[in-house]
Amino acid sequence: MILDLFAGPGGWSHALTVLGARDVGLEWDKWACKTRTAAGQLTIRTDVALYPTWPWVGRTWGLIASPPCQAWSMAGKRLGLVDQPLVHRAVADLAAGRDTREKLLAACRDERSMLAAEPMRYLHALNAVGEPEWVAMEEVPDVLPLWRQYAAVLRRWGFSVWTGILNAADYGVPQTRRRAILLASRIRTAQPPAPTHAHVAEPDSLFGPGRARWVSMAEALGWGATDRPVPTVCAGGGPGGGPEPFPSGSRQTLATARERGLWRPQTVPTEVVLEPQPRGASWTKRHGTRSVTSAGSPAPTFTSKATHWKWALRSNSQANATVRPLDEPAGTLFFGHRANECTWVAEPVSTPPEDEPQTAPEPIRITAQEAGILQTFPADYPWQGNKGQQFSQIGNAVPPLLAAHLLAPHLRVPLNLDDFTLAA
Fold first, then answer.
1. Residue 293, pLDDT above cutoff 90
2. Distance (Å, rounded) from C-alpha 85 to C-alpha 107?
3. Which end of the chain is more exposed for a tag (fewer CB within 10 A), N or C?
4. pTM value?
């Protein structure tokens, strides 16, 4: 079997499903377990740090681990960096068969820091019988030194190991999410998957096919494709001169806008149109035959006359938040508490005339479906819980498309990008 530690809502698991395999996920969060169950994924609700290792010995082919990143993430207090020497010591002890977790945990500033050592407890037990055949682990970039420590141990045990930082956008994810990756195998040379996308599209050459341009949010969400609506707020009131669709001080969701009939397609003005990029057959099958402009023509606009504002995504509410226009991938999405709310915001394209409002419309909160799509989950993925619980699951998940790139070589199956359709 494939054992998935800290399985979350199923990023790795959905990738395995697409690739024709299944895992058993260990996860403690109630709502993540409910999401996994609704998605048909095998799940044991438990604390990974307390669950015994013996049930897996003699039956585990692959091991996946994405320990919780809150202690290490830039979105939090990053006390994991303070605790890092303690975690390194725990890994070294566990690799030698000594369990000092309880003592070291008492000295940690953030109790979640020690969870990054848990995969070594399972690996040590499995290695006694020559398992697993392969390992795949993922975390925030600051955990890379710890992955290198894991790599040194695994090499002593006969694994080929690769560690490094990968950008999810290089693999077709509409998000520049950078993650520390560890890949290990007993039977093949461990190496990162070949990137399929680049910041600037690359032509085919004698050495092989070129890379497509990074997938933009507009392309992933289907905004501007054929007759799909795009978020539109008319200056000075709603459609037809009605009341303001988003009154002052409100933060309405795009889903609410749809229900109230406040969406309508508009044509992108010439000042924001870029030259279409050539696409191959696979891209056409996945995204349609439309010409691609900077915002996936037609673009979302905010006025009934000329475009003076355009949509961009602010990845959180912090002062240093990444703000990206729709014609680019999103920044790293992370959620967890209201201060990290992810919103669509209005960015100026040109100066409005004096007779039109000079201030940007109110921010609009991203929906769980939209956030899930930007993580490459299907549009109909069955997220469970309230909005906060859903956003927390989405922000902590591994993008399934990135996971599929990492897993396909171990499973010895081809990866078909057309299996990861994004927009509804």
1. no
2. 11
3. C
4. 0.80
Residue 219 covered by a domain: no
Q: Is 268 exposed, middle or buried (CB count within 10 Å of its CB: 0-12, 13-18, 19+)?
A: buried
Residue 130 in domain: yes
- Classify strands 42-45 and 197-198 as parallel, antiparallel or unpaired: unpaired
Count of domains for the chain: 1
Q: For residues 115-147, b (16+ Cβ closer than 10 Å) or e, as one string?
A: bbbbbbbbbbbbbeeebbbbbbbbbbbbbbebb
Q: Does the residue 372 lie in any domain? A: no
Six-digit token string for 123? 């690996």
DSSP 280-339: -HHHHHHH-S----TTSSSPP-S-SSS--EEEEEE--SSTT--EEETTS-B-----SSGG
Looking at the domain assignment, is residue 12 inside a domain? Answer: yes
Catalytic residue among 69, 108, 234, 342: 69
Looking up residue 80, the CATH number of its domain turns out to be 3.40.50.150
Binned at pLDDT 50, 70 and 90, residue 207 comes out as confident
The CA angle 146-150-151, to the nearest 5 degrees, is: 115
Task: Reply yes or no on whether the pLDDT at 67 is more than 70.
Answer: yes
Quote the domain boundaries for residue 136. Answer: 2-200+397-419
pLDDT band at 255 (very low <50, low <70, confident <90, very high): very low
Binned at pLDDT 50, 70 and 90, residue 348 comes out as: confident
Q: Identify the CA nearest to 372 among candidates 398, 407, 403, 348.
A: 398
Specify the residue for token string 């998935």.
Answer: 4
What is residue 414's predicted lDDT score, i.e. its pLDDT? Answer: 93
Rounded-to-integer distance, Cα 147 and Cα 213, Å: 30
CB atoms under 10 Å from CB of 208, counted, come to 8
How many residues does the structure list for the chain? 424
Q: Is 234 a catalytic residue?
A: no
